[in-house]
Design brief:
The two termini are about 20 Å apart. The protein is built from 5 helices and 13 strands. The chain has one domain: Glutaconate Coenzyme A-transferase (3-Layer(aba) Sandwich), CATH 3.40.1080. The protein is globular, with a radius of gyration of 17 Å. By secondary structure, it is of the alpha/beta class. The strands form 2 sheets. Strands 4-3-2-1-5-8-10-11-12-13 form a 10-stranded mixed β-sheet, sandwiched between helices.
Length: about 220
């Protein structure tokens, strides 16, 4: 038994705090918005120029506005206090360190917190998007991804062999098998984390450490 995608998104939502400004990456990370506690004030930012995104619209209720989209080109809704601005202002927020947390997908994460999430050589690429700016500018980066690639290959690796988005930028990784912290976490929140080791801090129900080690190339310490 492993965590479902809903379980993974719920666990990622546990990293949110009241008052946070948060950027959710394309794909599974967008679903984290469904698990923000109702009594928590979290403002979602989209790098295409919107602050304060509402839930996904209902076609049945006629809420779809084709002109109102997030950075992943998904239709969204606005809130009473939503604001709109140009891309220059949006990236000034990101580069200026005003976004507290980014939850992103990944192709690979190294044991030192390096991130590769924007291209596979030889495959068509639409563009970098805002990924490099996000990992360089936000205060904390959480990766939400499948533990292994479709061919079974490791995605938690000793060293990324795909083009990097950023070096030593990932603080936490959540997969269907468990939760890992990287050496960067110590610099983020003062936690007692070995400065040179990735750590496994949570395991999904029914999953063993032996199974995780068998599916992981990166070195890690079990801290449970």
């Amino acid at each position: 038994m492993t965590w479902t995608r809903e379980d993974m998104c719920r666990r990622a939502a546990a990293e949110l705090k009241d008052g946070y400004y948060v950027n959710l990456g394309i794909g599974m990370p967008t679903l984290v918005a469904n698990y923000i506690p109702k009594d928590m004030r979290v403002t979602l930012q989209s790098e295409n120029g919107m602050l304060g995104m509402g839930p996904f619209p209902s076609e049945a209720k006629g809420e779809v506005d084709p002109d109102l989209i997030n950075a992943g080109k998904q239709t969204i809704t606005a809130l009473p206090d939503s604001s709109y601005f140009d891309s220059a202002t949006s990236f000034a927020m990101i580069r200026g360190g005003h976004i507290d947390l980014a939850i992103l997908g990944a192709l690979q994460v190294s044991e030192q917190g390096d991130l590769a999430n924007w291209m596979v050589p030889g495959k068509m690429v639409k563009g970098m998007g805002g990924a490099m700016d996000l990992v360089a500018g936000v205060k904390k980066v959480v990766v939400l991804m499948d533990h292994n690639a479709k061919d079974g290959g490791a995605k938690l690796v000793k060293q990324c062999n795909l083009p990097l988005t950023g070096t030593r930028v990932v603080h936490m990784v959540i997969t269907e098998l468990g939760v890992f912290t990287t050496p960067l976490r110590q610099g983020y929140d003062g936690g007692q984390v070995d400065a040179n080791r990735m750590k496994l801090i949570e395991i999904a129900p029914g999953v063993s450490t032996e199974e995780i080690r068998g599916k992981t190339e990166a070195s890690f310490e079990v801290a449970i």
